[in-house]
Amino acid sequence: MSTGFSSSSCRFADYFVICGLDTESGLEPDELSALCQYIQATKFRDVARGKLASADEGENFEQSPLRRTFKSKVLAHYPDNVEWNPFDQDAVGMLCMPKGLSFRTQADTREPQFHSFIITREDGSRTYGFALTFFEEVTSKQICSAMQTLYHMHNAEQYDILHTPPTPRSQEDARPAAQQLHAAPSLSRLQRFNSYDISRDTLYVSKCICLITPMAFANACRRVLEQLHQAVTSPQPPPLPLESYVYNVLYEVPLPPVGRSLKFSGVYGPVVCQRPSTAELPLFDFPLQEVFELLGVENVLQLFTCALLEIQILLYSQHYQRLMTVAESITALMFPFQWQHVYVPILPASLLHFLDAPVPYLMGLHSNGQDDRTKLELPQEANLCFVDIDNHFIELPEDLPQFPNKLEFIQEISEVLLAFGISSEANPQCSEGQSKLRGFRSGDMASDKRNGNLAGSPLNSYLLRENQTIARLQALVKRTGVSLEKLDVKEDTSTNKDSKVQCDEEEFKMHQLNIRVREVFANRFTQMFSDYEVFVIQPSQDKESWFSNRDQMQNFDKASFLSDQPEPYLPFLSRFLETQMFASFIDSKILCHDDEDKEHTLRVFDSRVDKIRMLNVRTPTLRTSMYQKCTNIDEAEKAIEIRLCKIDHTALHPHLLDMKIGQGRYEPGFFPRLQSDVLSTGPTSNKWAKRSAPAQWRRKDRQKQHAEHLYLDNDQREKYIQEARNLGTTLRQPKLSNLSPSVIAQTNWKFVEGLLKECRNKTKRMLVEKMGREAVELGHGEVSITGVEENTLIASLCDLLERIWSHGLQVKQGKSALWSHLLHYQESKEKRDATPAGLGPPGIIHDTERRKSDAGCAMPPLKVSLIQDMRHIQNISEIKTDVGKARAWVRLSMEKKLLSRHLKQLLSDHELTKKLYKRYAFLRCDDEKEQFLYHLLSFNAVDYFCFTNVFTTIMIPYHVVIIPSKKLGGSMFTANPWVCVSGELAETGVLQVPKNTLEITFECQNLGKLTTVQMGHDNSGLYAKWLVECVMVRNGITGHTYKFPCGRWLGKGVDDGSLERILVGELVTNTENEDRMCRTPPMQQSPGMMRRFVTISPNSKPKLNTGQIQEGVGEAINGIVKHFHKPEKERGSLTLLLCGEYGLVWALEQVFQHGFKSPRLFKNVFIWDFLEKAQVYFESAEQSQMTQDENWQMRVRHFCHFMRAINSTPRNIGKDGKFQMLVCLGARDHLLHHWIALLAECPITAQMYEDMALLKDHSLVNSLIRVLQTLQEFNITLEASLVKGIGI
User: Where would I find the UDENN domain in this sequence (predicted)?
Assistant: First the structure.
């Protein structure tokens, strides 16, 4: 980010550097670039079968010599060294001229090109470089004749190639040299087209002058360099020797103080720079306008989202400055967050192997302008954001969440741009080369009044494109009241002001636009995180131990924060809170207790957040998704304008130096080597130089400036940064010239270690997330959490797997490395399986043999088959892409608890792994691979529903088995049974079950987690009585098996006379030796209790005492209360809490059965009988107009109404089923506590209950009523199957 400084330097520039052709060493091919071109050439050769391979491709001879790269050298740098910023010759040489030297003749264009670059050191601090590359005539005869010789060789070579008939070079492999020769060419034409003739042509070579500075004042540096270049090329010599100007910039121009502006003299005119104060956004001096013109608002916002989610980003352009401008802009717009990973805006050709890095990165790759995107062989694309800057387009990874309030945000940015006459679309005129762009911008755009009239069109075109949201946007436009006349006025006011500003108009416009756009972006975060401090978890221990346990600590209460957010924000925010940049931001917050040690960024952000809090005095934590526009643009703009109108400091003017006579002369047109003796040291006394300050002060100062970059004091920052970026070390200080295999191996080893560590942390985080919640729930409610947070963690696990699978790939196929490996495996396995005959189609599972009726409860588990799971995914038509398929497969394997096992099987095919991966790849490091699989194995400890909950619309086969009781043979049973299966997402409708096999398999849309089964029969035939043990249902894809216990009769005149029952089920875990429930056991198990809805006869089982019954009711209500306190997406099944084991229905059953007078032998009395008698009593009491209060009559009316409705239902659900329905409806309508009060007072109770019954104990009844009243605040929605046939 542009906040970083690298030094305790208080000088504007640390070094002045000259790079170019070293005539002594002559023409050396640039091996590094050549090697990379060679590697690419061989890659294309392998991939594009049968193309001609010329042995000389290593020297890329198909490139004409003028297009080849040669080694550039750092010819000179002044001064030799600066203690606080040691000179890194390799890095500077490589980044000044990343492609090496280039040659031109008088026929080519030779415009000077400006670009900037960044050098990141081991400790994460940054130094900026600003380079101007121009062409100078080659005067050395040796070089010219060497070039001539190369041409002769090249032309002969090309002539041979073009006359080799059998293997014509395909179009894509030929270079521009040969591209235009379609007819059989003659050598003379070839030479004419592409040649250098020493007698006729002038040869030019590139040279570069460069400033290395601690802070990024891009415009000022550009000005200084352009004026120095102009001094050499203009016919008149400059007023003073060049040394005077360079000396002035190096030693006499200070950095502008914080919040001040500074003016100093270039060769021909003043140069102005200004630095923001501590209350403003950090320094940023690159033109945001260019980024929006190149990419368009929509794309910039998508790229911004990718950067915030730490997705790998690769920028691609043939202009180095564009790479740098886009990279710096995106990272600057992230304020207050900072990019924590590999950051190389210009990746030198020799470091291409870093694209293999399986870590988040933001890199810029130079294109030669001829290769199209398809030629680019990128190691991994599953999670890559590829930005083709010159062609204004961007490739995004799949399922990228939307930035919150995206449309309103785009609208607000577009308004800012329109005020400057900039379209919100990408502007194709930008690609015509930057010189035109500059003329176009300052000429037509900035000062031209026509823009006021044009300003409407870009917005309209944006609206047309986003047609589905036109209405919303138009409403917004009206609401925000943007009118084009206003925009016109804006132009006017700014042009009037400009007269006072001390820098040129274009630069002032750039500052204005930059600050407006940056304020709009910064405002999004201040709104989104306005109450973030509330959720920061302060560590209980001291800093030292906090540091050592950093990995295990949670520093932010994510769940609570997310539960406050509007639903549409969640997909983005839940992923953003998992990033390194967010963690670092919160860490810095924890480390800075008072404002004094707060790092600049944090201080600015916190002061803004405080301001918003003051405004939102209403409830500070109440979230609203109302879009709040940015309000502090004007003051920010004012601050800059004041600085630029009244310059605070002026540096010394350049002056004659103490040079010997004859020094300082040079030939016009050539940039000379300067006199190093006068430039080697600065002036001895200098009031701002601070060189006299004692060393420890200097060090402190340096730490402070570092902190402005990475906000921790040095020792801690060292520790932490090494941790956070342990993967970037080689990149932050690339030994740029060294490309030995050992270095590459070491780099890759670092990556392997890093991947393993990341895997360890991710699995741990995911387990803590789930286990923590399960443990808290102690067996009540639902075991597994679903919802956004889990989804985020699983998505990031998928991303980690993709990165592991694409590390060290031999040849790239498809966008998902994991899926590509699986397909290879599937293919080889099917080949092997196809050989033996008579095995039936491979992978189909033969466990459908008829089951005997006494087959016992368990269904045989599904066969474990990696290929079968792949087929399931391949059959899902909704998933179209490889990346999507890989993710779905990972989710399915997680849900089946087979991820580790499947991957182990996949990697056990060593031949295949060897074929697909290089030796250094993660998947070929045996120890690490073992540990990695071991970490994944730990997921088997918890239940995930990450497949079922995500793919809600797919078709799934289900298998249902009804298991009748063994004791009373159901073999005589004559009626026709049916079932209806319901889940959280849908229900099946009635399915007839064949009575001889009692099992069916059917396919239907995903039902979600299963909750209830309704089952019954049609009461036909002689013997229509049926005792059912349980019903088992299995999901044919995920293998989840649910058990729905029954243990009751279905039939007229037996048990409670019911022909159908509603059963509530739970997931069964398949452990080898037992069939146990996967829920944590209930906290208090009532003694000897069988799993039954109600007992067959009340006296057949030990009675519970009143204490146990109260406890049971309390537990049941408690479960429901907890259910509603969870975030909506993480709630389990409410049906289970109402009707399941120890649910509310069961608990109230115990209440009503306590002290129920035992009936005569052989006659069961059901609670429903008691309730019906009570109903008769109430109805007669109402008729006889007994004087009771209004309330009583109201309750009675309700009770009787519900009883009548349930009794008149066409369903044959039996007495206990009716009781269950009454309790559910009473809970839904918040009437249970009224009914208990009624029944306790009812004379029927006195007749049917013994004196010690719970219902006759006033204090117990009152406490029961109080407990039931707690349900009043919840909105209970019943599953359809529970209230079918009741119209209340």
Answer: 54-599
